[in-house]
Amino acid sequence: MEEILVPLGICLVLPVMIVWLVMRTRQNETNRKTEIMLKAIEAGATIDAEFFKSHQKGQKTIKERLLGRLTGASILTMLGVALLAVAIVFGNSYAPDGWNFNNSPAPVFAVIGGILLAIGLALFAVFFAGKKMLAKEMEAEAKALEQK
């Protein structure tokens, strides 16, 4: 029975609970903002429409998005290199059948490391291309933020 319940709990219940908690948190945040707005209206205070716009999630600047890609690229590239190094060490320690799938974990580490390295290098390429292409937009965005 435990063999069935543990995978079901991890693969089914856990993701559903995470999504439910995130959605509930967003709903509670919206309810709190609505309550604040209603109390401000009842009190007759002037309402700043920017209060709700400035606190929305997901409004990252171009520079923040590019830095996120740079961070992801760095992490994935380092993980890929580390896994490839582990594959080389395992491959050499299990000699002469070092790269045999049945006797050594080296091929698995090499494949996963290669995939992570490729994704990391692709993110580096996207970062540098985006940095070059969006330089003017980043300057305009920085000027707009300074004026506020």
Question: Mind explaining what this structure looks like?
Answer:
The chain is mostly helical. It folds into two domains: 2-54; 62-147. 81% of the residues lie in helices and 0% in strands. The protein has five helices and no strands. It has helices at 2-43, 50-54, 62-93, 106-133, 135-147. Helix 3 (62-93) packs antiparallel against helix 4. The longest helix is centred in the first third of the chain and has 42 residues, at 2-43. The radius of gyration is 25 Å and the shape is flat. The mean pLDDT is 85.
Detail the topology: elements first, then pairings.
Elements: H1 2-43, H2 50-54, H3 62-93, H4 106-133, H5 135-147
What is the CA-atom radius of gyration, in angstroms? 25 Å
The share of residues in helices is over 70%
In total, the number of domains comes to: 2
Shape: flat
Write the element-wise H/E pattern from the N-terminal end onward.
Answer: HHHHH
Oligomer: single chain
Helical region count? 5
Structural class: mainly alpha
Beta-strand share of residues? under 5%
**Biggest β-sheet description:** none
Contiguous low-pLDDT stretches (5 residues minimum) are: none
Overall strand count = 0
Overall mean pLDDT stands at 85
